[in-house]
Amino acid sequence: MFLHRGGPLAFPDPELTDDEGLVxxxxxxxxERLRHAYMSGVFPCYGDDTPxxxxxxxxxxxxxxxxxxxxxxxxxxxRQGRFTHSWDRAFREVMVECGDRRADGRWxxxxxIEAYVxxxxxxxxxxxxxxxxxxxxxxxxxxRIGSLFAxxxxxxxxxxxxxxxxxxxxxxxxxxxxxxxxxQYLTDHLSSMGAxxxxxxxxxxRLRHVTAVELDFRP
Length: 219
Prior knowledge:
Strand order of the largest sheet: 6-7-8-9-10-5-11
Strand content: 25-35%
CATH topology of the largest domain: Aminopeptidase
Largest sheet: 7 strands, mixed
Order of helices and strands: EEHEEEHEHHEEEHEHEH
Number of domains: 2
Number of strands: 11
CATH architecture of the largest domain: 3-Layer(aba) Sandwich
Structural class: alpha+beta
Helix content: 25-40%
Radius of gyration: 17 Å
Number of helices: 7
């Protein structure tokens, strides 16, 4: 399906596409379209030379506090106090860092940064920052709708900083009422941290419930 800028927000049913999950092409990155996409189980990912591409892969990767794997070494690192963390203190900087020097190519384009910054200012996108002293050394960002947190990307500049970001984000978002923490694709790194895959129909069923929840999100 081809979308037009400023056109209807609706996406095709993700269940009508294949497992790779390309749902639609084109459209825009307006706040309304992005929110509707995440409520539909869809997210944008594309490069410099393509229009926006909207995806809903099957299976879908998620992570929960019950399955979160934290090694004893990492748990000690968390307790040592070398790192501190904050929420929503440096959203733009986290996105820029997530998109910098990526081995898999540049996909966090300037237009995406501006779009998600707008979403952040509207209260629907959040960042978690990991600091070593006054230096930003790790973090992640994602979209929150209802009791869904859809993590988009994370980065590190020193060893373990991205692991710290993920552990803190999972623990604190669920403590704040999040019920579904989406990480999209199961990588080796996420698998080692306890992420699992679930079928797309199950993910979409859970999504309908959690996005309807009214949540005063204060991690």
